[in-house]
Specification:
With about 170 residues, the protein is mostly helical. The chain is about 60% helix and about 0% strand. The protein has helices spanning about 5-20, 25-40, 45-60, 65-85, 90-105, 105-115, 115-120, 170-174. The chain is globular. The termini are far apart. About 25% of the residues are buried.
């Protein structure tokens, strides 16, 4: 149904199924919601992109990693076109895409295919290189004062109000 109330109920029901571990029951609801949103709102509408992401997440949890990757790629591509690499929604989509590649054991391919997007998360060194981020050269012995690349605090994920905390491997081990 294209009734907004019905779609909201479907979304809630799909969420309840997913949260209770029943992705098999959530899948047809999410699939129908996506088809309706594409038809009613268009392929790059905010609701459609959220529906694609929810469906991708569910497929990923169910072990359908290749399908999840395709759907996350669709969201990331649409976000890049409509909002640009630096937008918080685009960065969220790119992070989801990175995890999908990781789940398939293809994280290096993600790094190669998405270098420009990764650069939107970081500040480059004065010479334009990315030590410790894109090229994997490590942090080096330089101090934090512009001598190596770090996440820029002007982006959504590295701001002081970011929804996640970034720690180093050493900090996790402590």
């Amino acid at each position: 149904s294209e009734n907004p109330g019905t779609l909201a109920c479907m979304y809630t029901l799909a969420g309840i199924h997913s949260e209770s571990g029943d992705d098999e029951a959530a899948l047809p609801l999410l699939t129908e919601m996506l088809a309706t949103s594409r038809r009613v709102n268009g392929a790059e509408h905010e609701q459609t992109l959220h529906s694609i992401g929810n469906l991708a997440t569910t497929h990923g949890r169910m072990g359908n990693d290749h399908l999840a990757l395709q759907l996350f790629q669709e969201v990331a591509d649409a976000r890049r076109r409509t909002q640009g690499d630096g937008h918080a929604d685009t960065q969220t989509a790119i992070c989801s895409l990175a995890m999908a590649y990781h789940n398939l054991g293809e994280y290096q391919r993600f790094l190669e295919d998405n270098a420009a997007s990764i650069e939107a998360f970081t500040d480059a060194l004065e010479d334009g290189s990315y030590i410790g981020t894109r090229n994997g050269a490590g942090r080096g012995a330089a101090s934090e004062s512009g001598s190596r690349s770090v996440l820029t605090t002007s982006t959504y994920f590295a701001s002081t109000t970011a929804p996640l905390e970034i720690v180093t491997y050493v900090e996790v081990k402590l």
